[in-house]
């Protein structure tokens, strides 16, 4: 059979395909190498920074280490970096120009915004008398002309500053926060001078530069309610501590971390709801909130610190929506929530926080009980020494701190 040679155009197409295949193979190899490098970076211990802070040079000393501790506490087996976002300028109060403000204290911290100058009307003058030719008739001897009256000096009045909101202005050269100083002053809101790279003000509170970590609320403000600005992800340590006038706080939907003593001493705070983004509530977060009657925490709570509701003598409702919540830290043999009516006045056989058994109350002296299906986690301190000798439970129930269990308690899985 006669063989037909391939036309040159077909050969060119085949060569181009072979070259493209080689290039694709090289690109794939490069991509695989890049992918390996990327995943190699991911598997390294992650960099944990203050939310919103730059990954480069993340040396924001005040809260960087603390947030790292929070993330480690929440995810002890899987520490992870905080996702970084950027708060838009429209979400901040803006920076202030001190030339537009008037200082009202000796320390140079408190200012009021300069009110507009009062409008002054020129003094009324009578038109000069003229003759039939339009000439001004001279005034009689001893009397001044109308023109003379207009040369009188206008009266000056002092600016009335009463009733104006007082701002504590953080100067642009301030790099660290003197918490005790600012918490002792009486003012209505924080403001930050133009040029500052360390702070910003949002809804009257002081934030880190990213606008995601709330550093300090004006605790001596007369305001009774506070709505947290959107995109607030962290309430810093003691950020609202001692805000005695607040009766209601509305946290941002994005709130994830409530730091140590965040609301401590808010003696007028009556109820608060932490949304479905909240994963951590730090130790003593609501210490001394004597008026707090209801605490609701959404479906993502992972960890709660010790003494979180110490002194909450009015707390009758505690509602944690996450059935998998089980990390409730204790210290010095603390019985969690024992200061509250929620704990002391309940006659429920199984007292639960989420799916965690906080206290078991035996209903009879039979020495055995069936664990309710709503119980997911049982710590040793919830039953040891107070309950039955034999527990019947599903294998879906998890036992915490097994080494601390009373050896005489028998567990039967059903």
CATH architecture of the domain at 210-413: Alpha-Beta Horseshoe
- State the oligomer: single chain
What is the number of strand segments?
24
Distance between the termini: 81 Å
Beta-strand content: 15-25%
Overall pLDDT score: 78
Q: So, the CATH homologous superfamily of the domain at 210-413?
A: Ribonuclease Inhibitor
Give the C-alpha Rg.
35 Å
Here the CATH topology of the domain at 210-413 equals Leucine-rich repeat, LRR (right-handed beta-alpha superhelix)
**Fraction of helical residues:** 10-25%
Low-confidence segments: 31-66, 79-90
- How many individual helices? 6
Give the helix/strand class: alpha/beta
What key attributes describe this structure?
four-stranded mixed sheet, 6 helices, alpha/beta, single chain, eight-stranded mixed sheet, 16% helix, Leucine-rich repeat, LRR (right-handed beta-alpha superhelix), 414 residues
Strand and helix map with partners:
Layout: H1 8-43, H2 64-74, E1 101-103, E2 110-113, H3 146-149, E3 167-170, H4 179-184, E4 189-192, E5 200-202, E6 205-207, E7 213-216, E8 225-227, E9 234-235, E10 248-250, E11 257-258, E12 271-274, E13 280-281, E14 294-297, E15 303-304, E16 317-320, E17 327-328, H5 341-344, E18 350-353, E19 356-360, E20 368-370, E21 377-378, H6 380-383, E22 390-393, E23 398-399, E24 410-413
Parallel strand pairs: 3-4, 7-9, 8-10, 9-11, 11-13, 12-14, 13-15, 14-16, 15-17, 20-22, 21-23, 22-24
Antiparallel strand pairs: 1-2, 2-3, 5-6, 6-7, 18-19
